[in-house]
UniProtKB/TrEMBL annotation:
Keywords recorded for this protein, A-Z: Iron, Metal-binding
Superkingdom: Bacteria
Domain Hemerythrin-like: 18-128
Cited SUPFAM superfamilies: Hemerythrin-like
CDD domains: Hemerythrin
Classification via Pfam families: Hemerythrin
Family note: Belongs to the hemerythrin family.
Organism of this sequence: Azospirillum oleiclasticum
Name by which UniProt lists this protein: Hemerythrin family protein
Length: 141
């Protein structure tokens, strides 16, 4: 996974400058968690997850606004993924507040990595294709 993330280039850009910038910020935050010398103490992890939730909320608001502006037919499924991702991050934060020793570092890093890569590569890429006019999605009944 780390290899994939480090190779992440412009092919992941969705074509909206604000959203692309935020994706790179999300990636940077993930890197700060995943790099081999990253701190693994509970307080630092907790702070990084707080940053991640704040950035993700801001980013999701921008994607929501874009999807509404485009009348994007996949908006409901996309928003459900955002909500599920935030819910899981908040579960990890609650878990860290219980001060487990040792904290579940690898589980958190893996989840965040999959979250960043999978969601952007799948759902955000669909949004990107719609934005570019290269696909049309069926309007849900
Ligand atoms: Fe995104
Ligand atoms: Fe998204």
């Amino acid at each position: 996974m780390r290899h994939l993330v480090m190779d992440w280039g412009e092919s992941f850009d969705v074509g909206d400058p604000v959203i692309d910038h935020e994706h790179r910020m999300l990636l940077d935050l993930f890197r700060s968690l995943a790099e081999p010398e990253a701190p693994t103490d509970t307080a630092t992890l907790r702070a990084r997850l707080d940053e991640l939730v704040a950035l993700a909320c801001q980013h999701f608001d921008h994607e929501d606004a874009l999807m509404r502006r485009l009348h994007y037919p996949g908006i409901r499924e996309h928003q459900e993924e955002h909500d599920a991702l935030l819910e899981q991050l908040n579960k990890y934060i609650a878990l860290l507040d219980e001060a487990p020793d040792p904290p579940p570092v690898s589980g958190i890093v893996e989840f965040v990595g999959l979250w960043v890569l999978d969601h952007i590569d799948r759902e955000d890429r669909k949004l990107s294709a719609f934005l570019a006019g290269t696909i049309g999605l069926a309007v849900p009944a």
